[in-house]
Design brief:
This protein has 261 residues and is α/β, with parallel strands linked by helices. 34% of the residues lie in helices and 23% in strands. 36% of the residues are buried.
Length: 261
């Protein structure tokens, strides 16, 4: 896919930041050591992390040059590092790995999360938030329409949700230390958008990218016309033109007793 667009992603900055702050509120005391914002994106949560721990070295890690440039401009990070977060490891154990709305893009959480926990200092914390929205109409339509309209490029036969139910993460993380897992449905009010359905405005910078990146301009126009029509039925407008968009997210923290859990 093409690089991420910080401007498009930031269109719903407040709605995307709130879950990160809710996750941050559940992080308790840390050992002395560095903090990593893994998949930092445009650095939206960097100022909050820096304010919470002003004396720690905060590193932002992401694979998008455009997003990293925005993150660096916040001034919150001591360093912004371009890396593949699927394989990233710190040079030495750290006190906190904070990852907001990024690990859903990666597979094999049963391997990934214990590996990240193993990068922590004793008493360190892994804190993760991921959307668990793929079963909702907003995301299900993307798969269904793409496969039906463009079967030469999309086949979701045997598809599995990238984020598991919360109970599975509790089972995975509990052997690693003191685990806390929860799920929240955010009822997001999206403002009217004269150019598109408000839910498409929300998904086009994230989930929809995986579809439209494989389509021509003409195909994209046909696809989004159908998507907008379906969204209008699933998420009807309120009297003022806004749309209520339930969005599910899963959260987890684990404080490890041994940094090599």
């Amino acid at each position: 896919m093409a690089d991420w667009s910080p401007e498009t992603y930031s269109r719903f900055r407040g709605l995307r930041l709130r879950p990160a702050l809710d996750l941050l509120a559940q992080v308790t005391a840390l050992p002395e050591g560095d903090i990593v914002d893994l998949g930092c994106g445009n650095g939206a949560v960097g100022p909050a992390l820096a304010a919470r721990w002003p004396d720690r070295r905060l590193t932002g890690v992401d694979n998008s040059p455009a997003m990293l440039a925005e993150a660096a401009a916040t001034g919150a990070y001591k360093r912004c590092l371009a890396a593949d977060i699927a394989e990233w490891e710190p040079a030495k154990p750290v006190a906190l790995i904070f990852s907001n709305a990024v690990l859903q893009w990666l597979g094999d959480h049963a391997r990934l999360l214990p590996r990240l926990a193993g990068c922590l200092l004793p008493g360190g914390t892994l804190a993760v938030q991921m959307p668990r929205q793929t079963g909702a109409p907003s995301h299900r339509f993307l798969r269904d329409f793409a496969q039906e309209m463009f079967p030469d490029r999309f086949d979701f036969t045997g598809w599995e949700a990238p984020v598991a139910p919360p109970v599975e993460y509790m089972r995975l993380l509990s052997p690693l230390g003191q685990a806390n897992v929860w799920e929240s449905d955010y009822i997001q009010r999206l403002e009217p958008d004269a150019a598109r359905h408000p839910v498409r405005a929300f998904t086009e910078s994230t989930a929809m990218r995986r579809i439209t990146s494989k389509l021509t301009a003409a195909e994209t126009a046909t696809f989004i016309a159908r998507y907008d029509t379906a969204l209008a039925a699933a998420y009807p407008a309120e009297a003022d033109g806004s749309v209520l968009f339930p969005f599910r997210r899963v959260f987890m923290t684990v404080k490890v007793a041994d940094g090599r859990a």
